[in-house]
């Protein structure tokens, strides 16, 4: 099971300058980019074909890997679409219960964040997620005995926010103990 995007006001987020959110595969557009999420044929995950739009470009989003200015992802890398903002492509990486939050800076054509985390929620100002930080112990995880009795492990996570305006990652100060498989 891969992490689920839990964002309120999805319809409002589709308007620029807010993030666009849609189904995993298919084309997504913001004023400066067309991004086509293409299912990998022989592996789990998605490749993202990106075309830079010129000012005033009103073309339909029909970018392919061949016509793209660049491609995000690689065969064998299980990336999944979460949201698109005017500057960032927000993805998750997972083939199982725990995954990563991956944020790609479309302007710089580089990864801005790749963190072991789950439960990403995208808003107009940033992406908030629970980042795995430390091994759970009886001292920092009161639920540890219950999780172990249920055949699970545990990890301490910290609520973390990636700010779209600054590109800065900040812990909110909230921590919790989460079960793991």
Structure description:
The chain is mainly beta and 181 residues long. It has one domain (10-180). It has 2 helices and 11 strands. It has a 7-stranded antiparallel beta sheet with strand order 5-6-7-8-9-10-11. It is elongated, with a radius of gyration of 17 Å. Mean pLDDT is 87; it is low at 1-18.
Rg (CA only) = 17 Å
- Helical residues, percent: under 10%
> What sequence of helices (H) and strands (E) makes up the elements?
HEEEEEEEEEHEE
Regions with little confidence, pLDDT below 50 for 5+ residues: 1-18
In the sheet with the most strands, the strands line up as 5-6-7-8-9-10-11
Overall 3D form: elongated
Number of helices: 2
**Count of distinct strands:** 11
Distance between the termini: 11 Å
Strand content: over 45%
- Overall mean pLDDT: 87
Query: In total, how many domains does the architecture comprise?
Result: 1
The secondary-structure class comes to: mainly beta
Largest sheet: 7 strands, antiparallel
Task: Compile the SSE list and pairings.
Blueprint: H1 10-13, E1 26-30, E2 33-39, E3 46-52, E4 70-72, E5 79-84, E6 88-93, E7 100-105, E8 110-122, E9 126-135, H2 144-149, E10 153-163, E11 169-180
Antiparallel strand pairs: 1-2, 2-3, 3-4, 5-6, 6-7, 7-8, 8-9, 9-10, 10-11
Structure in a nutshell:
The chain is mostly beta strands and 181 residues long. It has one domain (10-180).
List keywords for this structure.
disordered N terminus, mainly beta, single chain, 181 residues, elongated, seven-stranded antiparallel β-sheet
